Amino acid sequence: MNRPYFRVLEVDLSTGKSKLHRIDGRAEAIGGSGLAALLFERFGRVDLGWNEEEQPFILAIGPLTGAFPWMSKTVAAFKSPYHDQYTESHAGGRSALALKFADLDGLVITGRAGRLSSLEIGSRSIVIKDVSFMKGMDAYASGKLLRRMSRGGSGHRSILRIGPSGEIGSAMACINADTYRHFGRLGGGAVLGNKNLKGIIIQGDGSFELPDNSEYKKLFARVYEQVTATRMMHKYHSLGTPANLQALDDIKSLPWRNLQQTSDPEGIKGINGQRFADDALLRNGACSGCPVGCIHIGYVREKFSEDNRYIYRQVAYDYEPVFSCGTMLGVTETFDVLNILDVMEKVSLDSMSGGVALAWATEASARGLISEKETIVKLAFGEAEGYRQAARYLGTGANTFYRLLGQGTLKAAEEYGGAEFGCVLGQEMAGYATGELFFAAQSLGFRHSHLDTGGYSYDQKHEEKDVDKAVDFLMADEPGRCLLTSMVSCLFARSVYTEEVLGECLHALGYGEVTDKLAAAGERIRARRWRLRFATGFKPEDIVLPKRFYKVTTWKGPVDGDYLDGLRREYGRRLTELVKEGVDSET
Ligand code: SF4
Predict the structure, then answer these.
(1) Which of 61, 283, 294 to mutate to test the pocket of ligand 1 (most atoms within 8 A of CB)?
(2) pTM greater than 0.70 (yes/no)
């Protein structure tokens, strides 16, 4: 359980060859985010574009996976097709535990297969198969077929795959992880598509020993008790993250209709968490190793014969997809939202990016900047059928307009106009119109995820406009999150896994050296990731904030543009300083 080094498998798709590496640096890099950065430094090229053959696609897990609850995430790292910079995307599902059972801390995929292929890895095997016949196949069908084609039926098997959007190189293409989870943001699906890789099957076919001592058993019981006893556990299990829809609407922080509003008290009644649970919830699911089970799975039905016969499909829903394909599009019926999400799943688009991009296209249509010549179908807020069709056009790159939009809303706006109302914060926004600090933090955020920092939470508690105090908060908040993502903990567990508890868990598994250096680990890993980001072209001053964000009204009143600009300048300056200090201290 407690190797002092990392065991990493490298697979070169160009040659079909693979190599097992024993890589030092456990105490400094820990795993997850830290390991991914370490591996990119070793295998990646900051000077080459994201689509060059030798660029790696990296998966990394942490030291506590398989031994403690909630250590359920896998970190993917790559150069992003969205902005050609180093980034991470995280997913739950079964991949973390499958990698653990395959006896790997990390997987590095380089090269490009000659034909569309699948890669199956296990503890003692690597198989690359030609799957050219799966070209253009949607993510559901691909998952079913890859499952059938792979050996065994182990509960520790994980299947990652892409749909058509990844094959056409959309910067919004996600990687579907075990059907209900995703490496969603920043175009990981296009990275696999560029490698001609339709799917990755991870066979967790090995085994590992857990410590057989009372210290470990007692600690496990204590952590498990804390996880399952928290109020948060109840919230995430019962209504799930969609519980936040009503809460954010109530405080005028929920983006509606391309962020022209931040609240719609009538509309939200149709798609709040309770309404989804009452109308459409089929069951809950959980990532491997998670006792909470926040995954909410609803259903859609499709008529396939005149004598009223239907097929049913299960579709996962969370807060963010309901925001992007619901409120942002003015769609206020649960099944309408699920039907749009169903198409996003099939084409394997990041539904957050896809929904926000379609919201921009709707407003651009209303303002006469584009017409049905571009959108093919009429787009109007609230009209779900148009969005269902448009999601397919976007995910399959049906024409020049949709192919450009798939590279990013602001890329399309460069061609057609309308940049001022593109809801882009570095990437298409997450669903939090909480105010100035969130807008500043997400636009300069590492993953462009609302969980990069607690900016959304700070906005909800602070009315004062003190730039230094707010940026101090961001700078102090991020290292703790980096530590957790290096452990690959679900970030919903952050109140349970304090630094002290993490130290105890590591100690119980025999990672004494990691425990000794834990206090500074989050800071060190944060600096390492940002160094890579800057080295691949990130310049805070280049990030454009569309005017729409300056016109938002939240519970605090209208956004204060001077405060927002002050936050962006200061946060950008501190990040630049952080990287410069790190470089100076090494030279
Ligand atoms: S709380 Fe949800 S996202 Fe987090 S590990 Fe559990 S099931 Fe996965």
Answers:
(1) 294
(2) yes
